[in-house]
């Protein structure tokens, strides 16, 4: 185990690892949901979510986003992301179940979730921070992963720093990012030439109108 990780049992006995990067509050809860539950949730989400292929314009050319996406949440909270404005679909039972489970740990009420479906290693998400203005200062981001394991990397936003940190997010893992994390760190899911299973990730968010 790397010296950047320490183990703490929380009040409710859910074990987590604090990822000790400067100017961050990142907690990793491996296998937060058990594997049978997580397998079932993966299949459900794959079927029931209204997955979309979005396009982003780069130098005037429309490019497909390298993953399928969807946006669910409370009515009235739209979200603009890479120039795409998404209006939320209504919560499904499955999403509400996960939302309630992580809210007790995160101590916030999430009002929306961005869903990503990585079909294979050609899908990923480029370096970015979840720092859109609708998320306010020091956003709380609750990330739950299902299906195939993928690498998730952090790198410092400060170009004079070279600090990087990698972790693997697998079936049922929960990652909670809070505090200054988004102001100081970028994150990504790199594309990979390795054979990987399809993966679904949900990032629960609090949007301010
Ligand atoms: O798939 C992931 O684990 C991260 C997704 C992400 O960073 C995002 O959608 O903002
Ligand atoms: Mn993100």
> In angstroms, what separates the terminal alpha carbons?
42 Å
Query: What's the main sheet like?
Result: 8 strands, antiparallel
Instruction: Determine the CATH topology.
Output: Jelly Rolls
Strand content: 35-45%
At the fourth CATH level, what is the homologous superfamily? Answer: Alpha-ketoglutarate-dependent dioxygenase AlkB-like
Major β-sheet strand ordering: 1-2-3-14-11-16-9-6
Q: Which residue ranges are poorly predicted, with pLDDT under 50 across at least 5 consecutive positions?
A: 8-12
Task: Calculate the mean pLDDT score and round it.
Answer: 92
Q: Report the helical percentage.
A: 10-25%
Ligands (ions, cofactors included): 2-oxoglutaric acid, manganese (II) ion
Q: What series of H and E elements makes up the topology?
A: EEEHEEEEEHEEEEEEHEE
Integer tally of domains: 1
Explain what this protein looks like in three dimensions.
This is Alkylated DNA repair protein. The longest helix is centred in the first third of the chain and has 14 residues. About 2% of the residues have low confidence. The protein has an eight-stranded antiparallel β-sheet. It has a four-stranded antiparallel β-sheet with strand order 10-15-12-13. It has three helices and 16 strands. 15% of the residues lie in helices and 40% in strands. The chain has a single domain, classed as Jelly Rolls (Sandwich). A hairpin with a 5-residue loop joins strand 1 and strand 2. The protein is of the alpha+beta class and 209 residues long. It binds 2-oxoglutaric acid and manganese (II) ion (MN). The site of manganese (II) ion has 4 residues, from loops.
């Amino acid at each position: 185990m790397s010296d950047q990780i320490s183990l703490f049992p929380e009040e409710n006995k859910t074990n987590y690892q604090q990822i000790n990067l400067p100017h961050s509050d990142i907690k990793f809860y491996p296998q937060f949901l058990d594997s049978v539950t997580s397998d079932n949730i993966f299949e459900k989400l794959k079927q029931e979510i209204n997955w979309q292929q979005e396009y982003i314009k780069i130098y005037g050319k429309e490019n497909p986003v390298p993953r399928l996406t969807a946006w669910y949440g409370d009515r009235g909270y739209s979200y603009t992301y890479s120039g795409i404005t998404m209006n939320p679909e209504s919560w499904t039972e499955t999403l509400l179940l996960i939302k309630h489970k992580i809210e007790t740990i995160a101590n916030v009420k999430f009002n929306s979730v961005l869903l990503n479906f990585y079909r294979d290693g050609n899908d990923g998400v480029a370096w970015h921070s979840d720092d859109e203005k609708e998320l306010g200062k020091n956003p709380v981001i609750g990330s739950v992963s299902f299906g195939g394991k993928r690498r998730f990397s952090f790198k410092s936003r400060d170009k004079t720093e070279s600090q990087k940190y990698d972790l693997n997010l697998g079936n049922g893992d929960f990652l909670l990012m809070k505090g200054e994390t988004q102001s100081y760190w970028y994150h990504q899911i790199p594309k990979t030439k390795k054979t990987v299973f399809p993966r679904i990730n949900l990032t629960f968010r609090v949007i301010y109108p």
